[in-house]
Amino acid sequence: MVKIFAWIFIAFNAYMGGDFLLNALGILQTSKYSAGATWLYAVVLLVMCGLGIYYGLVKSDYKMALWIGAGAWVLIFLSLLANMIFGKYN
């Protein structure tokens, strides 16, 4: 069961990371976030996707791959929270 959830997180992170990357490159224009935040989300999601694939396929540690996949969304949530707290709303 952990293996299935790990692959779901890996696939979703790859999809969302690719979407943010295409938005950051200007190919898509559907992002509602700033350019810096879009780049940050693309890098975080794609790196965590790569780490999840590494731990899943090479190390066969799907529990760690699942934690890495979920950790990407925790990092994004914390960055959004920090932006809401410290951002300027003029």
Note the main attributes of this structure.
globular; single chain; 3 helices; mainly alpha
How do you describe this structure in short?
The chain has 90 residues and is mainly α. The chain has helices spanning 2-25, 35-58, 62-86.
**Mind describing the biggest β-sheet?**
none
Percent helix? over 70%
Strand proportion, as a percent range, falls in: under 5%
Q: What overall geometry do the principal axes of the alpha carbons give?
A: globular
How does the helix and strand content classify structurally? mainly alpha
Low-confidence stretches: none
Rg computed from alpha carbons, rounded to a whole number of angstroms: 14 Å
For the record, the count of structural domains works out to 1
> If you average the pLDDT, what whole number results?
92
**Counting H and I runs of at least 4 residues, what is the number of helices?**
3
- Helices and strands, in order, run as HHH
The total strand number stands at 0
Ends distance: 47 Å
Question: What secondary-structure arrangement, pairings included, does this model have?
Answer:
Blueprint (H helix, E strand, L loop, with lengths): L1 H24 L9 H24 L3 H25 L4
Question: Describe it for me?
Answer:
The protein is mainly α and 90 residues long. The chain has one domain (2-85). It is 81% helix and 0% strand. It contains three helices and no strands. Helix 1 (2-25) packs antiparallel against helix 2 (35-58). The longest helix is centred in the C-terminal third of the chain and has 25 residues, at 62-86. The chain starts with a helix and ends with a helix. The relative contact order is 0.16. The model has no long low-confidence stretch (mean pLDDT 92).
